[in-house]
Amino acid sequence: MPASMLARLMNNARPTRSISAGPGSNKTFGRHGIGNAGCPESSRRQGILTMHSELKAHPDYFTREIIQLADNVYMAFGFAASNVYMIVGDDGVIIIDTTETTAAATNILAEFRKITDLPVKTIILTHSHRDHVSGASVFAGDDKPDVITSDRDSNDPLIDKMQHPRAIKAMQARTKRQFGIGLSYPDEIIGIGVGPGDRPLQGMGAGILPATRLIPEQGADLTLSGIDLQLVMAPGETPDHMVVWYADKKVLFCGDNFYRSFPNLYAIRGTIYREFDVWADTMDQLMEFAPEVLAPGHTKPVFGLDAIRAVLTDYRDAIRHIVNETRNGMDAGLTIDQLAHSVTLPPELAEKPHLREYYGRVAFAVRAYFVGTMGWFDGNPTSLNPLSPADEAGRMIRLAGGTGAMWREIDEARANGEHQWALQLLDRLIHAGEDVARAQKAKAAVLINHAVDQINCPTRHYYIQCAKELEQQVGDQDA
Questions:
Q1: Is the Cβ–Cβ distance between 77 and 67 less than 8 Å?
Q2: Cα–Cα distance for residue pair 140/137, rounded to 1 Å
Q3: CA–CA separation, 443 vs 470, rounded Å?
Q4: Contact 292/304 with Cβ under 8 angstroms?
Q5: What is the phi/psi pair of residue 254, to 5°?
Q6: Would you say 75 and 83 are in contact if contact means Cβ atoms under 8 Å apart?
Q7: Average model confidence (pLDDT) for the chain?
Q8: Do the Cβ atoms of 127 and 153 come closer than 8 Å?
Q9: 186 prior amide bond cis, ω within 30
Q10: What is 387-478's CATH topology?
Q11: Which segments of 199-271 are extended strands (E)?
């Protein structure tokens, strides 16, 4: 790496080429990674559905741009849910990750072609999640590149189904809700927490290519188009995670093992248990490379060794804190619900911009750790044989004094902004079959009101999508 470039990186600056915002974008906001000035709130976010104040800055943060990380390394940022990287070699280019749609991949490739017309010789996929593998066919084109992945098993059912068919209708419905697919931008969806809300969705999942080369457990040192790269197993968000180390430029492509949000230790779309302790240990593994540029699968890069060590240390400590506090609570006999409401990050971590709960959420992580290590039973004997939801709801309604009393309490809760309490009361009416259409309509309204308070984008989207589904259901009943 040239000395002048290294000095700039150490000062958290970066060399950049002229930026093209890409098709369909009129964004012109400035460019920065972690270690630079924070993203300001947008002045364009007025007169729309209310949202958490911190989310108002996301459209400007995720402005589309090509960021130059080194003299031959480029990052496509803000074009899709995930980032795409290009390394320009002697006789071709190396693409790292490929986004979730062929439309986004097409836009990115057009920007990369303004830099070089060398053929795509290699595609490296850091892990199997659909938002990283689904634009591969676009980048491949007619070049017939090698497609390199880990030989570890995937933990993404939407990918696994190609080899192991399974019932995934519920997973697909929940994925749509989590990511706000189909919601209008910018009033309903503002961003996905670690990516833009106005990304193109055409060709979602359509460009997946089979691997032509699998990297074994011990990793591999490869020379590709004259570029020496080290591919290393680094499990975290998925067990098949693989990082790419470009030692000559001190750039570490870390996949989804780090991004600018509290880590998504559990995805509400549905996922198998993610090994918390392993993910935390991987942070130490990444620091051993001593990178000057950390290139994540989502959000902006981190520049400078000290800044990188700081964010990775915080990530590791946050995960280990969740593990330790949840484990201690389990040992003390606390239930999953008690722990989800009591375990929090310490203030010195919770207020860090890279640990805000834009994508992952602490309470979800606590629940996932409990179930992942102990299973569904919370230890309370009452939970072994509970009443059915309909039976319990009917008894509670009678105890409250009937449906009239329930509605009075619901109205009071809504008036006081007690959205969660109102939702739980409405669910009892629905489960008991009492005033179902009215309760569903009210629940839809409460979900919208609850959504606007959320800093966590998956939670916000889930509430809004379910509100729309309920409105449709009530409309179908009235038709």
A1: yes
A2: 5
A3: 8
A4: yes
A5: -100, 5
A6: yes
A7: 89
A8: no
A9: yes
A10: 1.25.40
A11: 213-215, 220-224, 227-233, 242-246, 251-255
Interior angle at CA 274, CA 272 and CA 276, nearest 5: 155
| C-alpha to C-alpha distance for 150 and 153, rounded to whole angstroms | 8
DSSP 325-373: HHHHHHHTT--HHHHHHH----HHHHTSGGGSTTSS-HHHHHHHHHHHH
Q: pLDDT tens, 333-389? A: 999 999 999 999 999 999 999 999 999 999 999 999 999 999 999 999 999 999 999
Token duo for residue 27: 């964004």
Closest CA to 180 of 471, 469, 473: 469
Identify the DSSP state of 102: H
Integer Cα distance of 307 and 377 in angstroms: 42
Tell me if 97 sits within 8 A of 297, measured CB to CB.
yes
Of the candidates 251, 262, 261, 257, the residue with the CA atom closest to the CA atom of residue 294: 251
Phi, psi angle pair for 372, to nearest 5°: -65, -30
Q: What is the rounded distance in angstroms from the CA atom of residue 98 to the CA atom of residue 116?
A: 18
Sheet holding 220-224, edge to edge: 220-224, 227-233, 242-246, 251-255, 293-296, 302-303
Residues 6 or more apart whose Cβ sits within 8 Å of residue 314:
349, 352, 354, 355
Token output for 291: 């990178």
Number of H helices, E strands in the chain: 17, 13
Alpha-carbon gap, residue 233 to 231, rounded angstroms: 7
Q: Which phi and psi angles does 253 have, rounded to 5°?
A: -90, 105
Contact 367, 399 (CB under 8 A): no
C-alpha span between 61 and 261 (Å, rounded) = 13
Domain assignments of the chain as residue spans, ordered by start = 3-314, 387-478
Q: Which CATH class is domain 3-314?
A: alpha beta
pLDDT tens, 235-268? 999 999 999 999 999 999 999 999 999 999 999 9
State the distance between the two ends of the chain, measured CA to CA, in whole angstroms: 67
DSSP lists the bridge partners of residue 88 as: 93
pLDDT in tens, 158-213: 444 444 445 478 888 999 999 999 999 988 999 999 999 999 999 999 999 999 99
Euclidean distance between CA atoms 432 and 394, whole angstroms: 5
Measured CA to CA, the distance from residue 436 to residue 454 in angstroms comes to 27
